[in-house]
Amino acid sequence: MPQDLTALQLVLSGDPALFAIVRLSLYVSLSAVVLAALIGIPLGAWIALTRFPGRQGVIVMLNALMGLPPVVVGLAVYLTLSRSGPLGAFGLLFTPSAMIIAQTVLVTPIIAALTRQTIEDLWIEYRDELTAMNLGPLGRVATLIWDARFSLVTALLAGFGRAAAEVGAIIIVGGNIEGFTRTMTTAIALETSKGDLPLAVGLGLVLIAIVIAVNALAWTARRAGERLAG
Amino acid sequence: MTMRAPSEELPIVFEGVTVAAGPVTILDSISLTLLPGPPTVLIGPNGSGKSTLLRMAMGLLAPSRGRITWGGRENVPPLKRAIVFQRPAMLRRSAAANIRFALRAASIAHAEHARRTSELLELVGLERLADRAARRLSGGEQQRLALARALARDPAVLFLDEPTASLDPTATKAVEDIIRTVSERNIKVVMATHDLGEARRLAGDIVMLHRGRIVETGAAASFFDRPQTAEAKTFLAGELLV
After folding, report:
1. What is the ipTM score, two decimals?
2. Residue B84's closest chain A neighbor by CA?
3. What are the average pLDDT values for consecutive 10-residue runs of chain A, which has 230 residues?
4. What pTM was estimated for this model as a whole?
5. How far is CA B226 from CA A145, A177, B140, B204, B235, in A?
6. Dihedral sign computed on CA atoms, order A82, A88, A91, A95
7. Which of A41, A162, A50 is nearest to A112 (CA)?
8. Which of A186, B25, B70, B184 has the fewest CB atoms within 10 Å, i.e. is most exposed?
9. Residue in A131, A134, A147 closest to B92 by CB
């Protein structure tokens, strides 16, 4: 209990080091979600609306990739970005960019798989109408994504939850460098191992508060949008 | 929506059209000509092939055998045809935005959208609900909005699949009034119903289907007064036609 009190005091004191960690965490996770959305939403919509040989296998694989182990992704991205890897020349290893790449790899299958399911369900409902209106493939995709926007918020939230909570991938590719690549989850892991429990608990509280706040905001926006658009 | 001249879409001619799904024959050797004029109403029990015939006339389904022509041409894209399905899907936007969507899909000039939208909403009596989410409208209101959305395409032929199924008498009357107005403006209406009262009120011509085959066609008055086939007599007598 005294440790919880110290942690709370740390959060309320506006400790600059703590807030730098929070800022970086949000920057990395939100960037990864945006990038994953830009890839995953069109990819999921394309799989939902296109028939091709091996499609069922692709769907099974996509669903399976939602459970990608973060440490495995971290290792793969590490090998790709390391000096001797194919993208080593860019010098991205142990930078926030490497962490964003790793989280994008983790989050993209989640957003793509949930988008595929959402768009496919909506397509069943809209298929006759959009076909009768002689709408082309691009028009169909745009309409379905727009009309599924409130459901797709859930996919983005799932992606954000995954990114915000994971530690395995970013600790490998980011290196947990103080003031540069240290995020809330990597700091919690480090401080716990060092025995500095007040800071670890404080960061944990902030992380949980952020996840709740983001979900509450998205839920409120979704409710308001649904009231207006149906 | 304006009065229109006779369309290049008509006549719609079915020549020996058969539709099969695996071993099941849905439509069997249909030969039929849909001409300009008052509404043509397809009647018959459930599963007789009315909806499939409408979808084929709209160009949404291809025949397994036989051919369909629109104004003497095959494979005409449905630019001047529109359809209202039995359970129309409402897009997740307002009533007015549903109509604007149809106008955009039909490549109607953007400058026309506001005027056309309010005209269509007025035609179907939904002007006060323009900003209401379409999916929150009642069943009857949704059906009227679906009619407005179909008319946004400025069609020469309008196909209606059971447009008043599951509506109460007030909503049914509102939809039927719109259908009459549409027909008076020289838009060819082809509709399916299993409601004989509705067929009597609206039909100029009747096409009766049973088990995927046309069993009788003709002017509505003579069909209802002097049915020629045993199936038509049974159906008109209100007996179960299975």
Report:
1. 0.87
2. A129
3. 60 80 94 98 95 96 95 97 94 97 98 97 95 92 93 92 94 94 93 88 89 88 76
4. 0.84
5. 54, 92, 34, 15, 13
6. negative
7. A41
8. B184
9. A147
CA-closest candidate to residue B41, choices B189, B166, B174, B213: B189
Q: Which of B90, B93, B105 is nearest residue A135 as measured by Cβ atoms?
A: B105
DSSP secondary structure of A4-37: HHHHHHHHHTT-HHHHHHHHHHHHHHHHHHHHHH
User: Average pLDDT for residues B131-157, to the nearest whole number?
Assistant: 94
CA distance A126 to B87: 11
B229 SS3 class: coil
Distance from A68 to chain B by nearest Cα, in Å? 34
Write out chain B residues lying below 8 Å of A125, CB-based: 89
Rounded distance between C-alpha atoms, residue B209 and residue A154, angstroms: 47
Query: What is the C-alpha to C-alpha distance for residues B80 and B58, in angstroms, rounded to an integer?
Result: 10
Question: Which 8-state DSSP code applies to residue B213?
Answer: E
Q: Burial, A87: exposed, middle or buried (Cβ in 10 Å; 0-12, 13-18, 19+)?
A: middle
Distance from CA of B105 to the nearest CA of A (A): 6
